[in-house]
């Protein structure tokens, strides 16, 4: 029996995922290429295997003027399957809340520091009173 490595991700799995997403986006598989659903060119969409720059499968339409390209993630976004990033307003609101909390935490920390040094001064005063 041949030994298999189960730890390495199967590179073909990424390809199968991308192909299935391309089909959902309206691309039609023709042999090794797809018909482009954006510019409707026949067999203009190429699939790109992972390489030194990108560790995932990608695709692009080589028809002049057609900008359709991407990968499984961008396709998921296009198809409304991926979680949208936070709207800018919500992001700003959360950042303000975070800054407010951070501010309150450092305020409280200053208060505690003051209490500690006051206590230390008090202790020193007491030990001076009692002499050494
Ligand atoms: Zn195209």
How are the strands of the biggest sheet laid out side by side? 3-4-5
Helix-strand pattern = HEEEEEHH
Q: Quote the distance from N terminus to C terminus.
A: 83 Å
Helical fraction: 40-55%
Q: What percentage of the residues does DSSP assign to strands (E)? A: 5-15%
- Can you tell me the residue ranges where pLDDT is under 50 for at least 5 consecutive residues? 1-8
Count of discrete alpha- or pi-helical segments spanning 4 or more residues: 3
Shape: rod-shaped
The biggest beta sheet reads: 3 strands, antiparallel
Average pLDDT reading: 86
Explain what you see.
This protein has 132 residues and is α+β, with helices and mostly antiparallel strands. The longest helix is centred in the last third of the chain and has 43 residues. Strands 3-4-5 form a three-stranded antiparallel β-sheet. It has two domains: 68 residues, no CATH class; 48 residues. The chain is built from three helices and five strands; from the N terminus they run αβββββαα. Zinc ion binds next to loops.
Present the secondary structure layout.
Blueprint: H1 11-24, E1 28-30, E2 33-35, E3 45-48, E4 58-61, E5 69-71, H2 72-78, H3 88-130
Antiparallel strand pairs: 1-2, 3-4, 4-5
Short description:
The chain is built from three helices and five strands.
Q: Notable features of this structure?
A:
132 residues, alpha+beta, 2 domains, two-stranded antiparallel ribbon, 5 strands, 48% helix, rod-shaped, disordered N terminus, binds zinc ion
């Amino acid at each position: 029996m041949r030994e298999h490595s189960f730890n390495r991700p199967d590179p073909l799995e990424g390809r199968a995922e991308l192909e299935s997403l391309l089909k959902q986006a309206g691309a039609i598989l023709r042999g090794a290429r797809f018909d482009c659903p954006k510019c409707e060119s026949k067999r203009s969409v190429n699939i790109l295997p992972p390489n030194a720059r990108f560790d995932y499968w990608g695709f692009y339409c080589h028809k002049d003027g057609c900008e359709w390209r991407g990968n499984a993630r961008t396709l998921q976004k296009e198809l409304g399957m991926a979680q949208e990033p936070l709207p800018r307003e919500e992001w700003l609101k959360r950042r303000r809340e975070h800054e407010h909390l951070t501010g309150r935490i450092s305020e409280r920390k200053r208060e505690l520091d003051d209490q500690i040094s006051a206590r230390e001064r008090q202790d020193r005063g007491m030990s001076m009173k009692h002499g050494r």
